[in-house]
């Protein structure tokens, strides 16, 4: 591994001076992993706190087979994006929100976590070091994946004695193969993503392993993703494997309330604020699965999926379609405001973007 200068010196290293674009086909980005130049690593030894983070050449990391993340699943991830503006500068979207969410997830998973400042500085350094991988304006974004894992040795059910905070990045386009076209969801009625008191409300890696079975089966049947119901009443909407869900009826926008079993999405929260600022009424509440039958529009939100209109939902033997398979006016409006803000095309009155 070739080591770079410590974090505080990164602005003067060769890593930040590369402004040309990587030599890849920028028109065909999907949502798949592409290795880039640098990753960021910071460690926390037993009883200590995170310090001495540094950029390293991107590559495999060494992990003992007995590490906490591999044996008891002590791990969290985050996701955020960087966009290249027309003037070449780069914008991050609300990185301190990801830092705060990692801190609350770390508390639930009994892990120490970087401070908000350490997290945000590490994200900035990693993006700048990989600047040539930030897609040209309009071609996609650089997806940033911070990880927090138990990297010390365990054998029983116990806390990892050491932790690693890591960031890698990958250029991405649309999450769903449908691109910006409406997606088709299926409501899962046998398994559940989360239980009250569990870890559904934090971004622990196990939440994503738990949905793989239903997700894989749904994809094999041609659906884009799976919509989960609550595990107690088995009738209230929770979230989709990779994103939050919104239902529109008569210009009122409703979304499942945050109550510990769904992820408090940063795009979800931003879309609620944008919708209210555009004059929509937004309700965070229990949303009954039967409301899908009457809805005018349904859409999903998430860092990866941005705002994705839903074209149809299948529940048991019923299939309901929205807007004759077209994208609804409300989701189009919200998508447009959010993405123009993230790309620096409109004034950021919310003070959400961070320019590098
Ligand atoms: C994100 O939107 O960043 C997520 O973490 C979802 C992920 C499963 C792609």
TrEMBL record:
**Cofactor(s) the protein needs:** pyridoxal 5'-phosphate
Keyword Lipid metabolism found: no
Presence of keyword Amino-acid biosynthesis: yes
Q: Record's Gene Ontology CC terms?
A: chloroplast
* Pathway(s) served: Amino-acid biosynthesis; L-leucine biosynthesis; L-leucine from 3-methyl-2-oxobutanoate: step 4/4; Amino-acid biosynthesis; L-valine biosynthesis; L-valine from pyruvate: step 4/4; Amino-acid biosynthesis; L-isoleucine biosynthesis; L-isoleucine from 2-oxobutanoate: step 4/4
The chain residues annotated with the modification N6-(pyridoxal phosphate)lysine are 203
Give EC number(s), comma-separated: 2.6.1.42
Catalyzed reaction equations: L-leucine + 2-oxoglutarate = 4-methyl-2-oxopentanoate + L-glutamate; L-isoleucine + 2-oxoglutarate = (S)-3-methyl-2-oxopentanoate + L-glutamate; L-valine + 2-oxoglutarate = 3-methyl-2-oxobutanoate + L-glutamate
Top-rank EC class of the record's enzyme = transferase
Q: Which UniProt keywords apply?
A: Amino-acid biosynthesis, Aminotransferase, Branched-chain amino acid biosynthesis, Pyridoxal phosphate, Transferase, Transit peptide
Top-rank lineage group of the source organism? Eukaryota
What GO biological process terms does the UniProt entry carry, in alphabetical order? Answer: amino acid biosynthetic process; branched-chain amino acid biosynthetic process
Please give one Gene Ontology molecular function term for this protein: branched-chain-amino-acid transaminase activity
Q: Which family does it belong to?
A: Belongs to the class-IV pyridoxal-phosphate-dependent aminotransferase family.
| The protein, known as | Branched-chain-amino-acid aminotransferase
- Tell me what organism the protein belongs to: Rubus argutus
């Amino acid at each position: 591994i070739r080591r770079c200068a410590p974090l505080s010196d990164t602005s003067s290293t060769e890593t930040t001076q590369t402004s040309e674009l990587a030599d890849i086909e920028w028109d065909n980005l999907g949502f798949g992993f592409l290795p880039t130049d640098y990753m960021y690593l910071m460690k926390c030894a037993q009883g200590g706190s995170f310090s001495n983070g540094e950029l390293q050449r991107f590559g495999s990391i060494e992990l003992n087979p007995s590490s906490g993340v591999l044996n008891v699943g002590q791990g969290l991830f985050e996701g955020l994006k960087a966009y290249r503006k027309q003037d070449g500068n780069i914008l991050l979207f609300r990185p301190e929100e990801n830092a705060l969410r990692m801190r609350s997830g770390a508390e639930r998973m009994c892990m120490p976590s970087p401070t908000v400042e350490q997290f945000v500085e590490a994200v900035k350094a990693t993006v700048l070091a990989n600047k040539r991988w930030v897609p040209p304006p309009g071609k996609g974004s650089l997806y940033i994946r911070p990880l927090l894992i138990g990297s010390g040795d365990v054998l029983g059910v116990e806390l990892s004695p050491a932790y690693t905070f890591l960031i890698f990045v990958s250029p991405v386009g649309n999450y769903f193969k449908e691109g910006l076209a409406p997606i088709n969801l299926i409501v899962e009625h046998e398994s559940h993503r989360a239980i009250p008191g569990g870890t559904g409300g934090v971004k622990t890696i196990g939440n994503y392993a738990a949905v793989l079975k239903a997700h894989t089966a749904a994809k094999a049947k041609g659906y884009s993703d799976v919509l989960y119901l609550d595990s107690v009443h088995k009738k209230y909407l929770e979230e989709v494997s990779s994103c939050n869900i919104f239902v529109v009826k008569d210009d009122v926008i409703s979304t499942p309330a945050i109550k510990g079993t769904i992820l408090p999405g940063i795009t979800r929260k931003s879309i609620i604020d944008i919708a209210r600022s555009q004059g929509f009424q937004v309700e965070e509440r229990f949303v009954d699965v039967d409301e899908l039958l009457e809805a005018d529009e349904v859409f999903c939100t998430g860092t990866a999926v941005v705002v994705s209109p839903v074209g149809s939902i299948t529940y048991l033997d019923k299939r309901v379609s929205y807007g004759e398979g077209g994208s609804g006016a409300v989701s189009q409006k919200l998508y447009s405001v959010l993405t123009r803000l993230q790309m620096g095309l409109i004034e950021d009155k919310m003070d959400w973007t961070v320019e590098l």
